[in-house]
Amino acid sequence: MTSFLSVVGITGLCVTAGPATPAHASPTELLQNPLTLDFQCSGCHQFENNPLAEDLPPHAPAAYFGTLMANAARDPVFWAGVALASDDYPGETEDCIRCHAPRAFLEGRGDAIAIDELIPPDFDSVSCEVCHRAIDDGVTPPGNARFVLDDTLVDGEPPRRGPWGYAEPNGPPLPPHPIIQDLEFLPSSRACGTCHDVTTARPRVDDQGAPIGVNFNEQRTYSEWLGSAYAQPGDDAKTCQDCHMALVEVPAAGCMEYENVGEFAESGARRHLMLGANAQALRVIADNSPGANGNAIDVALGLFDEFLATAATLDVEFPAAVDLSVGLDALGVRVTNHTGHKLPTGYSEGRVMWLEVTARYAGEIVWSSGLWDGAEIQADPQLRSYEGEAQRWADGTHNHLLLNDHWVLDTRIPPKGLVPGIETDPVGDRYALLPDDTWPNYDDHSYAFGPASVVDVTPEDATDDELELELRLLYVINTQSYLDQLRDDNDVNDAGQAVHDMYMDDGGPTPMVLSSAAVTVPLTGLEQPDPGDGDGDPGDGDGDGDGDGDPGDGDGDPPGMTSESSESSGDGLGGNEDAGGCSCATDGEGGPLALGGFSLLLLGIRRRRLART
């Protein structure tokens, strides 16, 4: 097969453009040659996979229209956050618009603070040419959407940059616009770093409120990668694109003309799916934004689960058997981050990842930690969560991006090989540097559950008693309390109420499962039913849930704790509807299962059976 796509050199129409006119400083330095509208790009860049890839995810660049980047200007959470930020610091939201609606900024609408202040072309969001005209001028640092776009003309148009040069004069028609082959900046993580490091104007302060010499590092996704093993030459080396824009496994073309005539490059085609973890945002956008490409979004949503499974693994030290009269003294788990940045990364407000633990007998929860009640995580003393919590140090105000000046904690799991740095270090005492002076890309935790009083539901058969143990790594991007705050703190417009309503219409906050591990083990130590009852029902144990095995207050909460709610979410993520905190299942009236005392133990010798997913 002869290819008319060259992957080396700049030939044919690929002449080197003259010095670029940067468009990155302020609205007074706008493009002389405006961005092409995305629908014009899709005319050539939307097509079906070729026969070599018919069973693979779409590789046409127009798959991009199903991504959050392509819908960043439609995101209702973004606009609710902008409303709060504009109220806190009027005039400082231009950087938000730069990133989410570049065309609006470039055409002088960078002062927009509401979605209805944009015009229809602005909803192209991070449009095709924001990347394909981007250059590195060698001066502009990454971050805060300080993109530099080539504004020179070649044959009457600004050239677009991509992975290929078009070399053969006798081949299919050349693209209808000038091309410059870019094998350096466009495929680099530095290109992504243009927007994926964010710094605010607030000086960052320490725990005593003293400035530490840098402005507040609101997001550092690019810097996390840059300080990790993935940014270094070697076996671990990976760019952002290697995960989020995976190479197409078979020869493919980048435009319809070449795809139709079967002229495929052997390599270089990347999927423009830009998968991440915010599937619910895409659903909400598809349901509430008439201009969104619903078909492309549906394709992306169908690929989320497979992508999420690559983010992390759980290694669990499951016991070989459990005796309820003794309890479970050391359930050890290691969560390993396989991403090129902290897990989770990016915008921290409203986002939390955590471990959910359940131990079930006969469908009822005996022990648990980290249950989701349908809106929030139920608090318990053994809860293990991963989040970045920022505030305004002076008064503790949370979830106001432009007010933040202090990191209260940052327990997000570092990427592999992350070197120390004031803007990427964890905050708190959870992690300790490894002997090679890098942060671990894993977190070890151990659970301990005391004896439990549980009635045997099949006393006539001693061979069927089993305990189902399961751990899941869950992640929710917008908690109920965050959505409530976006609504309640908004004195500017109705964006907070609007986003709250949209997410409630979608069923409320919905956790995603990143990883899970489960095992069923033999169970002993069950109690026999009260012979005076005679109903055979698992409802005659102590079951007060107060952790002491004695009749208690019947509220179902673990010792010393109260839970927001003990209602199930109904989607399998909330656990048993009678479970509260880390206690056993209880209905507050002497329910079937009861939990004895518990204690936290360090991860011990790896002496238990190991299960991994």
From TrEMBL:
Domain called Cytochrome c-552/4: residue spans: 88-132
Which residue ranges does the record annotate as region Disordered?
Answer: 523-590
Q: Which Pfam families match?
A: Cytochrome_C554
Q: Where is the composition biased (Acidic residues)?
A: 530-556
Alphabetical UniProt keywords: Signal
Q: Which residues form the signal peptide?
A: 1-25
Q: Where is the composition biased (Low complexity)?
A: 558-570
Classification via InterPro entries: Cyt_c-552/4, Multihaem_cyt_sf, MYXO-CTERM, TM_Gly-Cys-Arg_CS
What name has this protein been given in UniProt? Answer: Cytochrome c-552/4 domain-containing protein
Origin organism is Enhygromyxa salina
